[in-house]
Structure of phosphoglycolate phosphatase:
Amino acid sequence: MLTDLSETRSIVFDLDGTLYVCPQLGKQIEEAAVELVAESRGVSRERGREILARARSRLTEIFEEQPTLTRTCIELGIEIREFHQMLQYRVRPEQYLDHDPVLVALLDSLREQCDLYIYTNNSLPLSHKILSLLGVEEMFARLYTIEFAQAPKPDPEAFRRVLEDIGGPPESFLFVGDRAAIDLKLPAHLGIPTLLVGETADLLQIHKLLGIIP
């Protein structure tokens, strides 16, 4: 349980499920992956769905945690570039996301005290589009997307590169995400403060710990 963020200088947010929650968009992304698996195997969408589900189940058994969709596609021999090209072609966040004044206000007050960053498995174009729709694209000092990491979270080497690029001791960071195993396990292992969230309102916990609100 976090009690003190007095040394925090850099807040690193996950994107999907952290700064917004949209099951419909998640379903679009899942369906794009199903289509890509089906095309790569030359099978029906139904068969592609089965193949994807089995691969995800197998990885869950091996690593004792559910893998990301990107990691599952890699396991099936699909390159990261192929997967994200499909997402850019098939996923339409503008159908579901809109300007979020609450999120804008929350992040605007945070960036008065800390530098804000995004670390996501999304591609840069899709991340820009989502953040722009939410109205918070200009809030972040840098976006660490799959193009920078070259490997999906949680990847130790990519995580190390993000830390080194931002700079600062462990206590100067706060990592915020909605998936403990994917977003927060690596920073927690290094003693970096983390915060698990389930909805936008949970971000107010940061403000309380920073003393922005009582």
